[in-house]
């Protein structure tokens, strides 16, 4: 709160009026950012017949929307698919990111700048342009000649490398003093020991950033599951939400319940890693 007060120029203000102004400002901030989420959660426990009708306090709280979503639309199966894809994809993505960033930030080799430019260039390509080539590659994986269409692996492997995470981690690793690495090598540490015991522990703030951003990116994927999934049993939650939205037989209450369950994992991940996330942002600001 003190940082917010400093930014607003209220840290020097005292007295009942200043306290009332601060309280009003915090209430507005909470309402703007948390209001839609609270309305979504509470409305999912209500019998909502009109898509434009939200409620702060449900008239008659009920779990009928969640029951219908679970029983009729296999929401738990969809949630499991999304968690498997997000968990497996994030684990693969973080692994690829830390090794790629270590090579780009701590090693000197010809073409390092070219590699980094190529990685950055992938950020400029829309998903729609990559859709057809990606579907062809997933249909016949090079070298292995494996068809990943219709498999959750087809949704996990393509998100295993993400330019944003690699760039963030590379820039963070560049700021680690070279003297720490040299001291470890003098003590007899090998390459993996230096990486695992010296470099990686100092990158926890950056790991928090790429963990949150990576999870959100993978969790919100729509185009990739659309290309890979062959039937409803292979859908993820974002893809299923689109299907439920276009189905006239699905009530708005069921859609709200499904949207609430789709939103909660992202919120939970952010709350779990927000400390590391804020440390990473602060470290970047100080170093920049």
Properties at a glance:
288 residues, mainly alpha, MetI-like fold, 2 domains, 14 helices, 70% helix
Task: Characterise this structure.
It is built from 14 helices and no strands. Helix 4 packs across helix 11 and helix 11 runs antiparallel to helix 14. It has 2 domains: 2-65, no CATH class; 74-287, Orthogonal Bundle (MetI-like fold), CATH 1.10.3720. The longest helix has 36 residues, at 252-287. The chain has 288 residues and is mostly helical.
Blueprint (SSEs and pairs):
Layout: H1 2-8, H2 16-43, H3 64-73, H4 75-106, H5 112-121, H6 127-139, H7 153-156, H8 163-174, H9 178-186, H10 191-199, H11 204-219, H12 223-228, H13 237-245, H14 252-287
Helix pairs in contact: 2-14, 3-14, 4-8, 4-11, 8-11, 9-10, 11-14, 13-14
Share in helix: 55-70%
Query: How big a fraction of the residues is strand?
Result: under 5%
Low-confidence stretches are: none
Tell me the overall shape: flat
H/E topology pattern: HHHHHHHHHHHHHH
**What's the domain count?**
2
Alpha-beta content class: mainly alpha
Report the CATH topology name of the largest domain: MetI-like fold
CATH superfamily of the largest domain: MetI-like
* Radius of gyration based on Cα positions: 23 Å
- Work out the number of β strands: 0
Distance between the termini: 24 Å
Any guess at the CATH architecture of the largest domain? Answer: Orthogonal Bundle
**Average pLDDT reading:** 82
The main sheet comes to:
none
Report the top-level CATH class of the largest domain. Mainly Alpha
Number of helices: 14
């Amino acid at each position: 709160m003190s940082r917010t007060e400093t930014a607003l120029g209220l840290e020097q203000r005292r007295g009942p009026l200043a306290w009332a102004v601060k309280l009003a400002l915090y209430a507005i901030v909470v309402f703007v950012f948390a209001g839609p989420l609270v309305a979504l959660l509470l409305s999912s426990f209500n019998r909502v017949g009109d898509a434009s009708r939200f409620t702060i306090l449900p008239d008659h709280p009920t779990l009928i929307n969640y029951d219908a979503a679970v029983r009729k639309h296999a929401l738990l199966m969809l949630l499991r698919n999304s968690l498997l894809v997000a968990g497996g994809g994030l684990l693969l993505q973080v692994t690829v990111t830390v090794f790629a960033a270590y090579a780009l930030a701590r090693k000197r080799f010809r073409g390092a700048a070219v590699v980094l430019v190529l990685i950055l260039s992938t950020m400029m390509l829309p998903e729609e342009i990559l859709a057809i080539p990606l579907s062809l590659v997933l249909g016949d994986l090079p070298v292995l000649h494996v068809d990943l269409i219709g498999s959750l692996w087809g949704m996990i492997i393509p998100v295993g490398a993400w330019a944003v995470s690699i760039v963030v981690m590379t820039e963070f690793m560049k700021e680690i003093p070279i003297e720490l690495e040299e001291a470890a090598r003098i003590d007899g540490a090998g390459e993996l020991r230096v990486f695992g015991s010296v470099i990686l522990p100092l990158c926890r703030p950056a790991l928090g950033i790429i963990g949150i951003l990576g999870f959100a990116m993978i969790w919100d994927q729509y185009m990739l599951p659309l290309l890979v999934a062959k039937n409803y049993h292979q859908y993820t939650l974002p893809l299923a939400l689109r299907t439920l939205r276009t189905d006239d037989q699905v009530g708005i209450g069921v859609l709200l319940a499904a949207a609430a369950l789709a939103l909660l994992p992202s919120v939970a991940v952010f709350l779990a890693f927000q400390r590391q996330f804020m440390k990473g942002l602060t470290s970047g600001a100080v170093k920049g």
